[in-house]
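User: Please fill in residues for this 88-position structure.
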């Protein structure tokens, strides 16, 4: 089972469920994007790449579920503020 669905069930609420669906889509995009970044480096990033979306989603997650957002480890590690976009 998709780890996000499990989380959505545990956390409950229509708003959370919609958010978690969005997160699942982002996760796939981010996974692909990371492979691209690994190959091309920083050039793969743009103003609208999944890193940017990820930071927005992370902020949204914190607003929606507070500290429980920490359970979203992939989102946290790839989108938490303060992390460099890509290593050189
Ligand atoms: Zn990026």
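Assistant: Residues filled in for all 88 positions:
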């Amino acid at each position: 089972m998709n780890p996000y669905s499990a989380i959505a069930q545990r956390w409950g609420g229509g708003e959370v469920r919609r958010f978690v669906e969005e997160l699942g889509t982002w996760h796939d995009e981010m996974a692909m994007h990371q492979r691209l970044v690994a190959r091309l480096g920083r050039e793969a990033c743009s103003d609208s790449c999944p890193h940017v979306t990820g930071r927005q989603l992370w902020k949204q997650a914190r607003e929606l579920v507070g500290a429980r957002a920490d359970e979203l480890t992939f989102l946290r590690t790839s989108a938490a503020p303060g992390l460099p976009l890509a290593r050189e």
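For context: The chain has four helices and no strands.
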